[in-house]
User: Fold these one by one.
Assistant:
Number 1:
Amino acid sequence: MEERKKGLTIYDLAEELKLSPSTVSRALNDHHSIGKKTKKAVKKLAKERGYRPNAIASSLRTNRSNTIGILVSWINRPFISSLISGIEKEARAKGYQAIISQSHDSTELEIDNLQALYDSRISALIVSLAMGTTDYSHFDLFKDSDIPVVFVDRIPDMLNINKVQINNFNAAFEATEHLIEQGCKRVAHFGGASHQSIYKDRMLGYVAALKKNNLEVDEAIILNANSLSEEEGTRLTEYVLNMDNPPDGIFCANDKAAVSAIQYAKKRGIKIPEELAIIGFNNDPICEIIDPPLSSVHHPAQEMGKAAVQKALSMIEQNGTSETNNRVILDTHLVIRASSKRK
């Protein structure tokens, strides 16, 4: 019996049920042309006999696998790991598996990994760009093959793409205005690579909040860093605190830099939030561990992953095409903690 299970095929099921192999195949794939009674009988026998579909053979026939490719920057970042979790959970619920690849924020590695994912005959691709990517021509391979591509969080500055994102402008505006409401008069901004739309929008939201509240927009304290790492957060904090007129508030475009800002300021004997109020972005777990706990913008990573899968599968059903409204925007909210709360 064990030998039969290992080699069991659709033809074996069809013979036992007195059905055609094509009917069995469609029943296993929930095809609308097959009745509920037949589907139930086929699936019941398949389960009893230990049948497993041959994914490799299927992908060779259709030139696609039942797999969604995921390409992100760093899988060890809390936001990205939550994003992947959301993608995998939704993909599995819909009968798909996921292949995960990371670019390490290298455009060259991003290009290599895209080719590998393409060669794996994925059915769709969900991607968050490498920090340095400014040319997006390597995605044409998927477009030309009608393989759906959904961009998440870090998205290209292009028209007619499918994307899942938050309103970065509004989120940054609210974070900056919170600092102002707490009494900050001179708020610095630490942003990421300015060519990335998410960091551009966060900077614009910060500027808009300053203008609304009649505060000076000082280019000297609007600083960008390539990766906005812990080291860069420390360097930027040291730079602004050594100014003749240092800021009394900092809005960081991620939590890594914000945590570094807290740590460096404390070493300098600066009281947080009394002398320097700080807020980050993403609401990473470290926000509750650092002393004082870090205020941040909650970024709905898992929900974004789920929405990206739903978008990709919708496009698969439409043979790779997409409706005109190809953007999904999810809500954010502030999580206020002791690093910024003065009142």
Note: The mean pLDDT is 89.
Number 2:
Amino acid sequence: MQILLIEDDPEIRRELMLRWQSKGWGVTTCDSLASADRHARNHVHELVVLDLQLPDGDGLDWLRRWRPRDPGTPVLVLTARDRVADRVSGLQGGADDYLTKPFAATELDARIEALMRRTSRDRDARLQFGPLLWLRDEARLLMDGTELELHPREFEVLGLLIRRAPRLVPKRVIVDALAEKNIEVGDSAAEVYVSRLRRKLGAGAVQIDTVRGFGYRLLLAEAA
């Protein structure tokens, strides 16, 4: 599990990072909304733990701006704002859970685990890699919140690449995956659809890398 912790209190950041790392969870910490915004645009996280009172703004305002770009990643608000009206605003603003400070670390862990159980049931229906968000049930692909028009076969191929990213996907696997969905394609289908996807993705934050003779993989531009 990869967690993005947005918290400006250095003691809380350190204690939670050490605690979660001891559980085998990956943790990235940010102490401002600006750094969180930069990091979240280019990295995949399974959960965001968000303080609301940050030095450069209100975490709830950031969440309201961020939700249209990423409607699915669970967000747990961790804040000193303990009024009922604050909790209601947080949940209506896009949070999936709300816990007030001071808090028990064991309760926070339990809430995180509950959120992850809830989202894991629908994980294959919603895949994210960097700014790309693939929504199976809606047959939609969003890049930074903006929808890209894809042919159904292109949509399936990109979903396969995102599901395995940044690992390699052999050409044969792409052809076989399309065949399993009763889509008749030839051996050159992988090259055709990858070429089309490259044109539609453009020179943005996500690129399709070719491993000659083997297949393809999705990479963030900084790693390409």
Note: The chain has a mean pLDDT of 89.
Number 3:
Amino acid sequence: MRQRWWMWLAAFLTTMGMCAVSACSGSGTRPERGPPGPGTSSTVGAPVLVAKIDNSPQARPPVGLGAADVVYVEPVEGGLSRLAAVFSTDKPPVIGPVRSARETDLTLLAQFGDPTLASSGAAPELVASVDRASLQNASAERQPGAYFRDYSRVAPHNMFVYSDQLPVGGGWPQASQLRFGPTPAGGEPTQHQEARYPATTIGFDWSPGQNQWLVSMDGAPYTATDIGRVVAGTVVLQSVQVHDSAVSDIAGSVSPLVETTGSGQALVLRDGLAFPAEWSRPSLQAGTTYTTPAGAAIPFAPGQVWTVLVPAQLW
């Protein structure tokens, strides 16, 4: 009898987890992100939640990604990529699949003040650094009750998090607010742009009908369970310096460490136009600004913002 009771409980929990992914992720068209006026943002002071989302082929489609204000694409081991999805305006009930944090996150996310970071954990040698960083470490190791596995997917690409069971993050600081505004002058018409990692290709195709960029992964349409095809109002392809970190994965591959402070080249895509740009982030607490070669600011278009961190050697 005891064995049968445990078998029933395991089956019940599995079913509940699977239902949570399908029923709680939501559906429909994602509302446009946008400020009340040019040069302002509606996220000032709103709590920030960042989720590390698996972007390997086995992890697709993601859940809850359509609600993110910003999506960062980061290079990781083996030429693959992970997503750091920043939620402030909306927080979907279920997000995932979540995977582990990286050293890159510690500097990248400092601009958001004291955000909550949802992840499956971190490499043992990195955990202490995550705990000391300017963020709330809300990993599955720290908040186990907030996480569950969907056994209709293959592990380790099947861990999800209930966002309302995580500690509330600090407010989005004024200093790093997204800047929205009208289309600037000087852009070149473009229909397609892409960034290539050794084992991942991230593509963006302009849709005049939707007035958005359609996101693709490895040549296929990228979809999320909450919105269907993932779209972006603005895309930033940002050239960054990448070094080996002191952390390796279980297979012994060294984790890349991305420098997100300093300056460099970028390409900003909005309104079917490409703008050659310079990016600048002078400190950990500052947001990244993008300007034309002449020094004029390039504001974002309404909608989700995608920033792809492209290693300089692949630029």
Note: The CA atoms of residues 238 and 266 lie 4 Å apart.
